[in-house]
Amino acid sequence: MINIRTDLAVESRELYKKGSGREVPGVEVEVNSENEISITTVKIVDEIGAKIMGKAIGNYITIETPRIIHYDADFHDLLSKTLAKELGKLINLKENETALVVGLGNWNVTPDALGPRVISKLMITRHLKEYMPEQIDEGINPVCAVAPGVLGITGIETAEIIQGIVSKVKPSVIIVIDALASRKMERVVTTIQIGDTGISPGSGVGNKRMAFTKDTMGVPVIAIGVPTVVDAATMANDTIDMMIDNLIEQTKDNKAFYEMLKDIDKNEKYVMIKEILNPYIGDLMVTPKEIDSLIEDMAKVIGNGINIALHPAIDLKDVNRYIQ
């Protein structure tokens, strides 16, 4: 497989399928679409599939819709409900069991601030269930949350901070939210990935930290991620490919030359582009200019989805009364 940075299982599958012309062995795929929302479930079932995909055995659910980038409150509510439904398939939370939600990322850097922003949209109820249980309706579970910052701010591995919290709070499940990297600009802040195998913070941008998994935390870890950046070399590589395809279509006399360019090994071409760009722009990641508003909208969508999934007794009207 071409060594392109992506945190999305659906993109790893696409890259393999494009290069080999067949489905990834050891991987099961299901695709559904409704109300302009596409849901792709990628299930890695054995070590062969895990090695090819570069991901752990487990389930990866990808929700995609281009409409998230256009402000539409009703559609955002629909997307939150879809997220809650898919999240519910991976969370086995019994009544009155505690959920810990962790917002990863650096709140000082907008493309990396999704996790902390989501935390501000949650219904936090653990303290209410403990100190005011008579005033809390049935179907409202104890939920606590934290945005621990990043290693560069705290000097502590984020996973170590959470391990300490887990030892005291003893949650039944951990939900981790983080910003991801995609290989396609059209997937940036239009895609949500849910996985039940945990997450390795920073892996998509080449800054891999200690992982959040059931092995490291002692309880199931559900990861929710949204791609907010694309590797500049990947964008340049895709642009060159599109330009060559266009030249092949338009050229009658010299197609052989452009076909030769198209047949250059993709790994070699990608490495060459990175080597050319590196002296000028370094290891550059690209994000949309509207990233501030996009992150805010996506944070609300994800926050509402988590609220509905963790509190079976409430709906969006209740959430909107609680969260201002």
Summarize the structure.
With 324 residues, this protein is of the alpha/beta class. It has helices spanning 9-20, 47-53, 73-90, 114-119, 126-131, 151-154, 158-169, 214-217, 232-250, 255-262, 266-281, 291-310, 316-322, and strands spanning 27-34, 37-44, 58-64, 99-103, 143-146, 173-182, 191-195, 221-231, 285-286.
- Please write the string of helix (H) and strand (E) elements: HEEHEHEHHEHHEEHEHHHEHH
CATH fold node name of the largest domain: Rossmann fold
What is the distance, rounded to the nearest whole angstrom, between the alpha carbons of the first and last residues?
Answer: 46 Å
Judging from the principal axes of the Cα atoms, what is the shape? elongated
Organism: Fervidicella metallireducens AeB
Pfam family, one: Peptidase_A25
Protein name: Germination protease
Catalytic activity: Endopeptidase action with P4 Glu or Asp, P1 preferably Glu > Asp, P1' hydrophobic and P2' Ala
Provide the fold topology.
Layout: H1 9-20, E1 27-34, E2 37-44, H2 47-53, E3 58-64, H3 73-90, E4 99-103, H4 114-119, H5 126-131, E5 143-146, H6 151-154, H7 158-169, E6 173-182, E7 191-195, H8 214-217, E8 221-231, H9 232-250, H10 255-262, H11 266-281, E9 285-286, H12 291-310, H13 316-322
Q: Which features would summarize this protein structure in a list?
A:
single chain; 324 residues; alpha/beta; Rossmann fold; 2 domains; nine-stranded mixed beta sheet; 43% helix; 19% strand; elongated
